[in-house]
């Protein structure tokens, strides 16, 4: 009787998961419920590889800033800070910055119309992780990413972005489709007993076959785990270890300069670029770093300004997650402090007035214009 009951129970649970995996609505409801543990709760690299060595048990607390972490600062009321960046800064609370007002838009995800206040110092920081430079500032993508689909645009530079229509598959979606197998693996493999089996499989693959699941990459000393696109020697310019010709670096800088001029013409008082180093750049510097960031900084000198996170991070070992490709709380705080230092520097209160000039428009860029359409 007990065995029959257990058989029926297991069959019922299995059927339930199959039904959930075949329904878009049920799948997303379940994976966003409290009954489903986050697959990235130990870090996304652990989730991709299941290598127990890189299981970061305190990932949740080390991946966010709380008010207790915020640096003490005096708010610079005359500075309006605009951030346009990626997943390295999208979790950082805007209250941690010391600008009077701070905005954030995610590259390739969100954008909106703004009206720049001529009575404030309007600063734009364009942040990218190093592995994103090759894609976002190539000749093919920079215009689409930063100008046509700009994170910020004014009434006079209205963007031409058109949202792709979403496809509504109804409650059952693509029943029995190719995604069902992947969904079942996610649903079942994310619970404790199944994770142990996945960790054992990952251990066998590594120590017997010298293979890392998910095509990710271990450092040569096996101390650090990296994404494939940042550490493989064959994937192309996203990797810290793939050779990049000087002509390609020049292309990146030229396109960054075009983006800089676009936003200066829009009316921003200053535009800064910030490149967050790949995790592999910082933790495996002796494995053949192509020095992309220092080369970009050298070639861009005198054309546009950059926030130098590379120099701050290059001698550190604990500013990135163990089980994830992003920086941890310490890295976030370093970023916030750098941005806040810059904010204090550009504040009018920190700048001596220059007779007969507008201090905010001191620039070598003769194409810079000012937006004067501020609505009170």
Would you give an account of this structure?
With 376 residues, the protein is of the alpha/beta class. Helices cover 38% and strands 12% of the residues. It has helices at residues 2-21, 24-31, 44-49, 59-62, 130-136, 142-148, 179-189, 192-209, 228-231, 246-266, 279-283, 292-300, 309-313, 329-346, and strands spanning 76-85, 99-106, 112-113, 121-129, 152-153, 217-218, 225-226, 270-276, 305-307. Strands 2-1-4-8-9 form a five-stranded parallel beta sheet, sandwiched between helices. Helix 6 (142-148) packs parallel to helix 10 (246-266). Residues 161-178 and 351-376 have low confidence and may be disordered.
Write the layout of secondary structure elements.
Elements: H1 2-21, H2 24-31, H3 44-49, H4 59-62, E1 76-85, E2 99-106, E3 112-113, E4 121-129, H5 130-136, H6 142-148, E5 152-153, H7 179-189, H8 192-209, E6 217-218, E7 225-226, H9 228-231, H10 246-266, E8 270-276, H11 279-283, H12 292-300, E9 305-307, H13 309-313, H14 329-346
Parallel strand pairs: 1-2, 1-4, 3-5, 4-8, 8-9
Antiparallel strand pairs: 6-7
Helix pairs in contact: 6-10, 10-12
């Amino acid at each position: 009787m007990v065995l029959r009951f257990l058989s029926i129970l297991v069959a019922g649970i299995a059927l339930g998961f199959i039904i959930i995996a075949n329904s878009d609505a049920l799948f997303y409801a379940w994976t966003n419920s409290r009954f489903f543990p986050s697959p990235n709760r130990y870090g996304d690299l652990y989730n991709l590889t299941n290598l127990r060595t890189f299981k970061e048990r305190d990932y949740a607390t080390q991946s966010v800033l709380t008010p207790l972490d915020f640096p003490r600062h005096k708010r610079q009321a005359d500075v309006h800070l605009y951030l346009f960046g990626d997943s390295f800064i999208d979790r950082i609370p805007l209250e941690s910055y010391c600008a009077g007002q701070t905005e954030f838009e995610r590259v390739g995800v969100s954008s909106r119309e703004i009206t720049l206040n001529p009575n404030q110092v309007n600063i734009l920081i364009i942040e990218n992780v190093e592995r994103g430079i090759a894609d976002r500032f190539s000749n093919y993508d920079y215009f689409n990413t930063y100008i046509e689909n700009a994170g910020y645009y004014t009434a006079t530079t209205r963007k031409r972005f058109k949202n792709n229509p979403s496809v509504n598959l109804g409650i059952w979606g693509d029943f029995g489709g190719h995604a069902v197998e992947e969904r079942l693996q996610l649903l079942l493999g994310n619970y404790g007993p199944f994770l142990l089996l996945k960790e054992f499989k990952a251990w066998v693959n590594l120590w017997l076959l010298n293979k890392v699941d998910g095509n990710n990459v271990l450092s040569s000393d096996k101390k650090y785990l990296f994404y494939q696109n940042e550490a493989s020697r064959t994937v192309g310019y996203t990797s810290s270890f793939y050779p990049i010709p000087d002509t390609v670096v020049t292309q990146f800088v030229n396109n960054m300069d075009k983006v800089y001029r676009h936003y200066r013409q829009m009316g921003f008082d200053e535009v800064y670029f910030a490149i967050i180093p790949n995790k592999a750049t910082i933790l495996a510097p002796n494995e053949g770093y192509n020095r992309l960031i220092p080369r970009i900084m050298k070639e861009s000198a005198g054309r546009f300004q950059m926030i130098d996170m590379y120099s701050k991070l290059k001698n550190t070992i604990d500013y990135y997650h163990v089980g994830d490709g992003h920086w941890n709380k310490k890295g976030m705080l370093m970023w916030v402090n750098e941005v806040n230092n810059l904010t204090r520097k550009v504040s009018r209160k920190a700048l001596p007035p220059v007779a007969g000039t507008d201090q905010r428009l001191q620039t070598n860029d003769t194409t810079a214009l000012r937006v004067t359409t501020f609505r009170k």
